[in-house]
Structures are given as C-alpha cells and as structure tokens.
Amino acid sequence: MQNNNLLKTAYLKDPFLRSSSPPVISRIGLDLHTSDLLDPNDYLWLKSLIWSEHKERRELFKSAAEEVNQHPLKLIEGDGVSLLSNISKEMPESLAVG
To answer: Using N-to-C axis directions, what is the helix angle for 55-70 and 40-48, rounded to 10°?
Structure first.
C-alpha cells in the first residue's frame, strides 16, 4: 500500500520546465539509415510514403523540408545508441544534448 502512495505522489508533482529553451548550437541526426532531405532522391522517397489523400501531412512534410534546407543538419549513419556517447563527448560540456 505504501508503494502505491509513493507512486501517486511522484505523478502529482509538476515537471521541471525551463523558462526558455537553450539555444541550438549544433544539429546532428543519428539513424541506422539516414534520409537526407537535401538529396532529391531521398526527398521524393520520403514524400512518396505519404498517402496522396493526406494533404495536411504533405504540407507539414514540405514545411519540414524547407526548414531543413534553411538550417541543414549533420547526418551520421549508424547505431545511434552506440554513437551517442562518443558524439556527446565531442560537444563542449556547457551544452545540453537533447
């Protein structure tokens, strides 16, 4: 019975939220198989995965692709779980990895 009360108390607390987001210094994508929206073939492949009747999703995809064009990110192909610790070591300690 005591464990249930402890669990309920943990869920009743408000989460810690920052008053503002930390600045984005670097954008890196890790995936087993990366898809680069700057590559026309990858762009068309990803776009083809959205059903034609999903117009809103196509618009969101187009907006996301435009954002990536304006703010490119580094893509690293491989196992993100094993790569993340080495990549985070390359970042200055003052930065948050999210």
So the answer is: 160
**Whole-prediction pTM value?**
0.61
What does the pLDDT look like over 21-74, one tens digit per residue? Answer: 777 777 888 999 999 999 999 999 999 999 999 999 999 999 999 999 998 888
Asked whether residue 31 is domain-assigned, the answer is: yes
Structural domain includes residue 12: no
CA angle centred on 70, ends 21 and 46, rounded to 5°:
100
Number of domains present in the structure of the chain: 1
CA 82 – CA 87 distance, rounded (Å) = 10
